[in-house]
Amino acid sequence: MADNKIKIDMVEGKVKGSVKSRRAVAYVVLSITCFFCLIWFYILIINATRSKGELTKGFTPFPSTHLIENLHNALTGTQPILNGMLNSVIVSVCTAALCVYFSCMTAYAIHAYDFKLKKAIFTVILAIMMIPTQVTALGFLQLIDKMNLMDNFIPLIVPSIAAPIVFFYMKQYMESTLPLELLEAARIDGAGEIRIFNTIVLPLMVPAMAVQAIFSFVSSWNNYFTPALVLSTDKKKTLPILIAQLRGADFLKFDMGVVYATIAFSIFPVVVVYLVLSKFIVGGLAAGSVKG
Amino acid sequence: MNKKKSVVSYNKWGYIFLIPFAVVFVVFQLIPLINTIKNSFFEHYRDGLTIIGPNWVGFKNYIKLFSEGNILKYFKNTMIMWIMGFIPQIIISLLFAAWFSDPSLRLKCQRFFKTVIYLPNLIMASAFSMLFFTLFSTVGPVNDILMKVGILKEAYDFMAHTGSVRALVALMNCLMWFGNTTILLLAGMMGIDTALFEAAEVDGATANQVFWKITLPILKPILIYVMVTSLIGGLQMFDVPQILTDGKGSPNNSATTLIMCLNNHLYSKNYGMGGALSVILFFITGVLSIIVFKFSGNEDKYGKA
User: Fold this and answer.
1) Would you tell me which residues 199-218 of chain A have a C-beta closer than 8 angstroms to some C-beta of chain B?
2) Out of A112, A139, A243, closest to residue B127 by CB
3) Between A and B, how many CB-CB pairs are < 8 A?
4) Distance CA A204, CA B264 (A)
5) Of the CATH numbers 1.10.3720.10, 1.20.58.100, 3.40.640.10, 3.20.20.70, which one belongs to the domain with range B53-134+166-302?
6) pTM for this prediction
7) What is chain A's pLDDT, residue by residue, as a tens digit (292 residues)?
């Protein structure tokens, strides 16, 4: 009896010990990985604060005092960075707004109504989900050339109305939050269908819309392929194109502090938004993937 | 009678609400897709200032693409860089997801870790690769640190060697996507019935056995989903190698991907060849998507909470 007890204690002790050591390993590996995720941005911040002369002397892990100067030089230099930022904001905000609103509308059409082609249309939307934009880029460019929309923001913004992945997320969310009885009640009260959508359905969808708005904003903000093919005048270029031009120029002639400041300038708005909203983003991601 | 009529009139709104999506899809995706396919059968390019074509040539563009277009080489480059990034990515993601979901570990600061590992996914790929280019240049901080520590005697030119350029592209892709994969796999692991783990624990299974014998087999559909969607994404690899190598795929075109090649055709208005390449990519993506859909059907059975 006592023998048995000791044995059990020993086994339990062993299990506890192994949990402890596994936990220690987990913390160490996670910390190292986090270090490798963040070190690049740390070096970026440090180098953005250092002057040209300091940068040629090699790397130090401590910030210097030239951040304002570098930012000022970046903004007033040959690259229209501030303009690019403005263009990026316009394109990304419009893209996110249109994408979220109309994806919600499409999801509502499939969720709330019963019509003959519903199943067929749903299948088609799922089937086109994976078509990469690059594959249709050739025909797309020819088309907008014919429509006289080259070097214009419209072909970058309007196509986001048809976003199958956002639609799918919205539909999943709607299934769990929008009871059809609610719509019936609104109809009995005499509300029109468009009004029901705008005043009853949309407010209920705000959490899902917020998550997807962030994602479409970010992917539009970061998009390089299509804008680079569509936009050609310097005044209209978005930030990723300007970054690419920076790479194309003979960069050794540049003030490297200014180069770092420019990169920081295009990365950190998104980082700040992400850190402020990370609770919703990481949570929303997991929710969407469990449901999807 | 009256009621039935009103139901019918409500349901027409289904079609009305679908109009914006349908119109935009047809104009900006379907017509361009058809046009792209059409272009692939015509000889149509610019030679200096003269435009040649469009003349119907059948499958000549496709044959030309394989015989002189280096497409197989670019396909190989794309795949090598994808695999080099994907293998560490999936291993790290599986490990982290297993740790995060393990109830006996009870890791603290989970939200902090998740926030940090997801962060690189949101970074502008072009700015990220520009950053890597400056960090890894011969006069950049990485070389400087490695020399100070004593690992390198003289600066190593990361941009001049096939292996190091590909490794950098793979490293960036891995960094940008492993957080996303971790969260996907974690959601799948959280969906597994805990009774299974409890039963295994009662039977005296070790954490290792539980992972290999229970978690992995149940996760198989999600793993396949992750792998194939990552492969589709890998085929579209563009921003990172484009900016890192300034569009040249240097050294010696060893980092040129399929989409970089397409991009070059689009810039030089070489519509025939660009069209043929697009159609090939379209079909590869289509086949891969069918695999995803086949397996995400299974995911419903196992993966859902």
Assistant:
1) 218
2) A243
3) 274
4) 46
5) 1.10.3720.10
6) 0.87
7) 455 555 555 555 555 667 888 899 999 999 999 999 999 999 999 999 988 888 877 778 888 888 888 888 888 877 888 899 999 999 999 999 999 999 999 999 999 988 888 889 998 888 888 888 899 999 999 999 999 999 999 999 999 999 999 999 899 889 888 888 888 888 888 888 899 999 999 999 988 898 899 889 999 999 999 999 999 998 999 999 999 988 887 666 777 888 888 899 889 888 888 888 887 777 666 555 443 3
Three state DSSP letters for chain B: CHHHHHHHHHHHHHHHHHHHHHHHHHHHHHHHHHHHHHHCCEEEEEECCEEEEEEECCCHHHHHHHHHCCHHHHHHHHHHHHHHHHHHHHHHHHHHHHHHHCCCCCCCCHHHHHHHHHHHHHCCHHHHHHHHHHHCCCCCHHHHHHHHHCCCCCCCCHHHCHHHHHHHHHHHHHHHHHHHHHHHHHHHHHCCCHHHHHHHHHCCCCHHHHHHHHHHHHHHHHHHHHHHHHHHHHHCCCHHHHHHCCCCCCCCCCCCCHHHHHHHHHHCCCHHHHHHHHHHHHHHHHHHHHHHHHHHHHHHHHCCC
Q: How many CB atoms lie within 10 A of CB A129?
A: 15
Within an 8 Å CB–CB cutoff, is residue B209 touching chain A? Answer: no
Give chain B positions within 8 Å (CB) of A239.
Answer: 124, 127
In one-letter notation, the amino acid at residue A280 is F
Residues of A within 8 A of B259 (CB-CB) are 134, 225
Beta strand ranges found along chain A (DSSP E):
none
Going from N- to C-terminal start, the domains of chain B cover 53-134+166-302
Taking phi over 0 as left and psi of -120 to 50 as alpha, with beta for the rest, B23 belongs to: alpha
Q: C-alpha B96: how far from its chain's center? A: 20
